[in-house]
Amino acid sequence: MSLASYTARRAALGLVQVLAVVTLVFLLVEALPGDAAVALAGDNPDPARITQIRAAMGLDRPVSERFLEWLTGLPQLDFGVSLVSGRPVTDFLSAGIGPTVVLAVLTLVLLVPISVLVGVLAALREGSLLDRTLTSISVALHSIPEFALAVVLIAVFGVQLAWLPPTAVGADLLVQPAVLVLPLVVLLARPICSISRLVRAGMVDALASDYVRHARRLGLGETRVRFAHALPNALAPAVQQVARTTDWLLGGVIVVEAVFVIPGLGTVLVDAVAGRDLPVVQGLAVVFAVTTVAVNLVADLVAFRLAPRAEVVA
Amino acid sequence: MKRAGLGGLLIAVPLALALLGPLFVPEEQTRGAPFMPQGLLGTDFVGRDTWYQVLAGGQTVVLVALLATAFSYVVGVPYGVVAATARLRLVDEALMRPLDVLLAVPSLLVLILVAAIAGQGLLVLVGVVTLVNFPDVARLSRAAALEISGRPALEAMRLQGESWWQTSIVYTGRSMLRTLAADLGVRLTAALYLVASASFLGVGVPPGAADWAVMVDRNRGGLFLQPWAVVVPALLIISLSIGLNLVFDRALRKVRT
């Protein structure tokens, strides 16, 4: 299968996936108990006032009608209007996306080289003390909840030693890079472990494979065999994991944002759910769904390019 | 061997505290001022004794994680096997495609939304963590069952006219056991991770509850005054998670070799 037809097929599948996720989230949000009209009407609600607010917000119209209207607005980036503040949902999204993207990009920039390096080092010295140490550490740190790691790091480096600011309250992320150190360490801990283990496993397999033996027999230099022949094949499984990490960084770092008080998309989500601000939640879900599908699409294409094999295509 | 020993120790401490701890909590507790250095570990954000909170707080985390993992298998394994052994390709697709959609939604978003719909409560937490975890179990079981159903042994059994029970449940089930057991550690740590993160975000458990993750969240305000109230429960969660990883990684190696 050529790259072009593979791309077309995956893109079509991705579009269907986005539609399905968006519909699912719309339904879930519709099922939320309590409604914004009741919340807005205040402590001692008057039924007439609730009906009035409901009509003003269009909440009295049938679900299907509102769904269609909302869906047709999406391609024009019209996510509707916040029920709580009346501002367009796009405002909320653009406010939260900055810090989230800064964190995600910085994490990825550090993550990929470090984890590939660690994985390759461990694989080249397979069975050595270095390999066993690196593997033990990455096994152990693999699934520590971020908040637990974060508060321990804050207690040690932020409070006890006072080397780094404990939270990012009110700080401009790019102007004061010190506030980013602890969040980045916490964000990197888990992905480095999982990705470096995949790179190590892939590299060990690749180095023992027939084509590497063949390349050596042809008299190619060891550096070229390792980095031009073995490494690309070893990276294909890791690419999928990098995609999952990117996806998580763009949508799921709610916990890290909460601990370090970073006003990113995760914080916007928590606030919106707490305030029953349904259009904002739906808008966020659309953003998350699109990024998930797009990131996976890119990852599949990269993996296809690195190692165009049958099992990747399937 | 050393690694498994260390892992066992790392599991044993939090697990013992979680399961036996509640027995040592006195009925009558005096409340002092918040974040004061009274007692073993000081007091927490509402003036309760932190040590007693630590003793009482492990139960929910551990039990919810265990229950949710068990339910993921109870739901996920039959789901995957049915998808794999279905005669119609359509049934397989109809069962597995929705899971792709579920996997495309960030797990904490699902968690927050479902908890907002279903309300508070430990059972809700168990349900949501199961919902997030079971697609992976279903996928794994489907892959394992597909591989097994293509084996010559099973074909021979079918030709001999063995019953559906014998082929699907007894033979396939037994052969899948290894793969599933190897995966148990990953599922358990994933469940622990989700339960702890959810409790930390205030999903599922009431804000005043004695729960390690809730304690970390609630006592954060007093980090400068009484760091133990935050650090001890956080370290217990970390220790449990590291221990589980080390022990199950060891077990996994044994299964594979």
Question: Could you characterize what this model shows?
Answer:
The complex is a heterodimer of chains A (314) and B (257). With 314 residues, chain A is an all-alpha fold. Chain A is built from 14 helices and no strands. In chain A, helix 5 runs antiparallel to helix 10. Chain B is mainly alpha-helical. Chain B is 75% helix and 0% strand. Chain B is built from 9 helices and no strands. In chain B, helix 1 crosses helix 9, helix 2 runs antiparallel to helix 3 and helix 3 packs across helix 5. Chain B is elongated. The model of chain B has no long low-confidence stretch (mean pLDDT 78). At the A-B interface, helix 1, helix 6, helix 7, helix 10 and helix 11 of A face helix 3, helix 4, helix 7, helix 8 and helix 9 of B.
Low-confidence stretches of chain B: none
Would you list the SSEs of chain A in sequence order as H and E?
Answer: HHHHHHHHHHHHHH
User: Which ranges of chain A are low-confidence, i.e. pLDDT below 50, for 5 or more consecutive residues?
Assistant: 310-314
Percentage of residues in strands of chain B: under 5%
Oligomeric status: heterodimer
**Helical region count of chain B?**
9
How many runs of DSSP E, i.e. beta strands of chain A? Answer: 0
Which structural class is indicated by helix and strand composition of chain B?
Answer: mainly alpha
**How do the helices and strands follow one another from N- to C-terminus of chain B?**
HHHHHHHHH
Shape of chain B: elongated
What form of chain A results from the Cα inertia axes? flat
